Amino acid sequence: MKRRNYLGGIALLLLGAFFGAVLITGFSNSRPGYDEVKIGSNNPPIQNVNVDAQAFNNAFVEVADKVTKSIVQITVVSRSEAKEEIPEQFRFFFPFRDESPKERMGSGSGVIISEDGYILTNNHVVENATDVRVGMLDKREYKATVVGTDPLTDLAVIKIEAKDLPAAYLGNSDDVKVGQWVMAIGNPMSLASTVTAGIVSATSRSLNIIRDKDGYAIEDFIQTDAAINPGNSGGALVDLTGSVIGINSAIATNGMTGSYIGYGFAIPINIAKSVAKDLIAEGKVRRGYIGVQISEVDASTAKAVGLDSPKGIMVQSVVEDGAASITDIKPGDIILKIDGREVNRPNELQGYVASKRAGHKIELDVFRDGKTFKRDVILKARDKEDDVEVKPTSSKEKSKSKDEMKEIKFENIGFTVRNLTEQEMKNIKVDNGVIITEVKSYSEAFNKRLSSGLVIVEVDKKKIDSVSKLEEIFEEKKGDAVLLKVVAKDEVTRFVGLEISK
Asked: What is the mean pLDDT of residues 275-289?
């Protein structure tokens, strides 16, 4: 009996232990109530944000809130005239190929610039458009008409029938500084109202992506590292006051994806304002021109003309009957300033002039023959671009003393020259000079873009009649620099600064 009670007690203990374990396990796997769940720390790492940091952050928030109302999304249906080219040997396999123009859809951005519906965007956004639609931040949609375009600056104005729109404030791009904070606002990848931030990385950038048939360009881009992608075109680049300082236009890309890889480029708003006013008022741009062909001044050129450092813009040639020719601007002059602003790159000068209309007066600071003087120039229009001629700057007096046919190689410069024949002078339309017959790769001459076929007509403003005269001057100028005046077969004249090594 005792044995049976003993075994029963052990069994009860084991059973109790089993059920206890089950109960404990069951409770440990139970979920807490929703209100009992606690996640994250109870306090932020920084409880008192620096006042300046908070103000800086708020500046971005306020600009985004205010300016996005003035940015629209533009959807365009355009007609493409490009036809698919099929090699002749394969055309048999495509007898019914449709060669009619194709329609395609694209999108971009725009900036509202007036309360009654004028919108500024890029020319490439609305080019060849057959249908243009505008979407507002508040979801309203409008059909738009193209008021005018300006391919040379990649700008366009469109119009919607609406009133009391939130027009953007257009600032002053002349005040833009490298390093200042900016925001890009637009609709990249059709993602409406996207805001990115960065700094101004550079100003007066030339990308060589816009040229007219004469090779003339107006490229004075503001460069930024604020992310800009396809669809941002025509959107706004703004500063921390909410002022629009540029119209986003281009991006640096690897050429494969077409997407942002680090830098974007915007058209300065001062140029955009001038173009927009002309397009709205007249449907075309009445842009002013100085009437010169210009180039940058390098160290050799500066040394050759007597400048203390490489600065300014050299006038290579003057357009006949242009504004500059009327105002005593000559080939070889160095333009140091325009309206008191220093200019050291051609696009800086072109960008500033592009913001002025024909008839506007500008003041130039000019360096010539060791002296600096001022000239007032009244800008002229260039309506008949096909009739523009470059004024020949070759001598009108024939040389009276000619060497016999002779050729000399200048090893220290890297080119070979010989005297011109009478027939060559007629063909090239010069009255004197020597012709370059060979240029050594990577030499001083090569680096200055001298090439065979160019005619040297002057050195340091002295006429060159023969290779012996050229040799004589080069001997005198060893260890110094000279300024060559060269003429190409198409009569285009330019100046080249050249170092003459000992």
From this structure: 90
